[in-house]
Amino acid sequence: MLIRKSIHFAPEYRCKGKKNGEKEIVRENLPLRMRVSYNNLRIEFVTGIRVDADKWDKANMRMELQA
Questions:
Q1: Paired strand residues for 36
Q2: In whole angstroms, what is the distance from residue 41 CA to residue 20 CA?
Q3: CA torsion 50→58→7→24, rounded to 10°?
Q4: What's the confidence (pLDDT) of residue 67?
Q5: Alpha-carbon distance 42 to 7, whole Å?
Q6: What is the C-alpha R_g of the chain?
Q7: What is the pTM of this model?
Q8: How many angstroms separate the CA atoms of 61 and 67, rounded?
Q9: Residues 6 or more apart whose Cβ sits within 8 Å of residue 61
Q10: What ranges do the domains of the chain cover?
Q11: CA 56, CA 39: separation in Å to the nearest integer?
Q12: Residue 45: strand pairing partners
């Protein structure tokens, strides 16, 4: 029997409003969401941690380290 499971982290992007007919997206202080999948069932919730979109490493699902 094959059991599929995964955990994904991603910031929750939000729209601030429209400016000149285009959506303006908030990029600072975004809530971090966590999605847990197990046997095709999903649950998604906010972790309580806030991140900036510019510092988020999408490929590794974590904050970039500052030098």
A1: 7, 43
A2: 40
A3: 50
A4: 59
A5: 10
A6: 15
A7: 0.77
A8: 19
A9: 8, 9, 10
A10: 5-61
A11: 28
A12: 34
| pLDDT tens, position by position, 6-50 | 999 999 988 888 778 788 888 899 999 999 999 889 999 999 999
Assess contact for 44 and 34: CB atoms under 8 A: yes
CA distance 66 to 2: 39
CA-nearest of 40, 46, 12 to 26 is 12
34 Cβ partners below 8 Å, 6+ apart? 7, 8, 9, 44, 45, 46, 47
- Dihedrals phi, psi of 53, to nearest 5 degrees: -60, -35
Q: Rounded to whole angstroms, how far apart are CA atoms 58 and 56?
A: 6
What is the rounded CA–CA span in Å between residue 53 and residue 64? 10
